[in-house]
Design goal:
The chain is globular, with a radius of gyration of 21 Å. A hairpin with a 2-residue loop joins strand 3 and strand 4. Helix 4 packs across helix 11. It is of the alpha/beta class. The chain folds into two domains: 294 residues, Mur-like, catalytic domain (UDP-N-acetylmuramoyl-L-alanine:D-glutamate ligase); 126 residues, Protein-Tyrosine Phosphatase, Chain A. An eight-stranded mixed sheet has the order 4-3-2-5-1-6-7-8, with helices on both faces. It has a six-stranded mixed sheet with strand order 12-13-17-14-15-16. It has a three-stranded antiparallel sheet with strand order 9-10-11. The model has no long low-confidence stretch (mean pLDDT 92).
Length: 429
């Protein structure tokens, strides 16, 4: 198969959560273990860092990868979902896996599977693709982002040097649990025996869950927001613990105030790692943090894609993510606010619509995926919360309407769904 045929196989022949929803979610790791045996346990051939959480895990993963890369390591990075290109999911030192390597892996799988007859999901197979690629390319480290939850996530066969859980909030409650403690228990499933774990944010409902699980596993546990402080003065950052400055005069090209939490979490993990990973000095940490986007290609996080009017997009899509977005919007200077907004059909709108600013004109839309919530339904529900605007059948139509309506001193924000942002970036990039 050529690359187009291979991608078609991955997207159309395999269950894919991002497009089909819970039908693609597996309640066990049987397929993952079978694939792992099929490819001779590739994850055992490299060191890894495992990153879970409701929000921020993608940013934290990219920060960690950038710092390790700056320290001179060959670093694999596995994240999901992608925005523009499937190959964004699998990178080494910021470079995406080649089309040839994608095709080669799928061909190997199809040959091997003539005997095994497995029926993996899209995510199960792409995780194994990443692990096999990292093994073949002999990476020193792989930073591995959890896809959904933790305990039953396909990535959860690795034995990392450190585990990281960024935060817990209500998302995917139909799969992970209806309350913070239940979701935390699923995320805590990545905590391994005698392996340190960093928790990014302390939550009264999840703290004891993590402490209990860590004790059960004999894992040292660190709450980043309790043990470390990130001071920010304009563009300069200082990382402090117990009144002692650990790293000073740091800079980051990541925009959005919510990134301070992610930076704190990532630096807490680095601080723990630096005892056994040579080269993680202040210089490599400063360089890696300053050049996260340059070194890893991170996008879609408070990303400005236009000016006059200013146009910003962000992938925040659940309750806490949108709280961060709305707070960041409140810090921006503009005459009028225009919001291009779409979501997926399994979101609890009663949790997210009340958060959105009422002093805006809305352009309700839907991404071109089966899971997208109908734009007219979204509009009708939003009107109950005094969010006024019109509906548009495609993201492109909504974007064109918003940019046509906006004046040069206005702000156009695009969000609500990773897929809305992805289609936006296709239009602008």
């Amino acid at each position: 198969m050529n690359y187009a045929q291979t991608i078609d196989f991955l997207y159309t022949q395999l269950p894919m959560f991002q497009r089909t929803g819970p039908a693609a979610y597996k309640n066990n790791l049987d397929n993952t273990h079978a694939l792992d045996r099929m490819f001779v346990h590739p994850h055992r051939d490299f060191k890894s860092i495992h990153v879970a959480g409701t929000n921020g895990k993608g940013s934290v993963s990219h920060i960690l990868a950038s710092i390790l890369q700056s320290a001179g390591y060959k670093v694999g990075l596995y994240t999901s979902p992608h925005l523009l290109d499937f190959r964004e999911r699998i990178k080494i030192n910021g470079q995406m896996i080649s089309e040839e390597d994608v095709c080669s892996f799928v061909e190997k799988f199809q040959q091997k599977n003539k005997v095994e007859k497995l029926e993996p999901s899209f995510f199960e197979l792409t995780v194994m693709m990443a692990f096999d690629y990292f093994k073949q390319q002999e990476v020193d480290f792989a930073v591995v982002e959890v896809g959904l939850g933790g305990r039953l996530d396909s990535t959860n066969i690795i034995n990392p040097e450190i585990s990281v859980i960024t935060n817990i909030s209500l998302d995917h409650t139909n799969l992970l649990g209806k309350d913070i403690a239940s979701i935390a228990a699923e995320k805590a499933g990545i905590i391994k025996k005698n392996t340190p774990v960093v928790i990014g944010e302390t939550h009264i409902e999840s703290k004891d869950v993590f402490i209990s699980k860590a004790a059960q596993m004999g894992a040292p546990v660190y709450f980043a927001d309790q043990q470390f402080t990130l001071l920010h003065d304009k563009e300069k950052l200082q990382f402090i613990s117990d009144g002692k400055v650990l790293y000073r005069n740091l800079e980051s090209e990541l925009r959005g105030g919510y990134q301070y939490k992610n930076i704190t979490t990532a630096l807490a993990a680095i601080r723990i790692l630096d005892e056994k990973v040579p080269g993680l000095n202040e210089q490599s940490i400063a360089d890696g943090l300053k050049n996260v986007i340059k070194y890893t290609g991170l996008s879609g996080r408070w990303q400005q894609i236009g000016s006059s009017p200013k146009i910003i997009c962000d992938t925040g899509h659940n309750q806490d993510g949108l709280k961060n977005v709305v707070h960041q919007l409140s810090l921006e200077q503009f005459d009028k606010l225009h919001v291009v907004f779409g979501t997926v059909n399994d979101k609890d709108l009663t949790l997210i619509l009340p958060l959105l600013p009422r002093n805006a004109r809305y352009y309700f839309t839907k991404a071109d995926i089966a899971r997208a919530l109908d734009e007219q339904v979204l509009k009708n529900e939003a009107h109950k919360y005094q969010l006024k605007g019109d509906s548009y059948a495609s993201v492109n139509e909504a974007l064109q309407a918003a940019t046509k309506m906006a004046n040069k001193n206005d702000l156009v924000f695009i969000g609500g769904s990773t897929f809305v942002v992805a289609e936006t970036l296709q239009f602008y990039m």
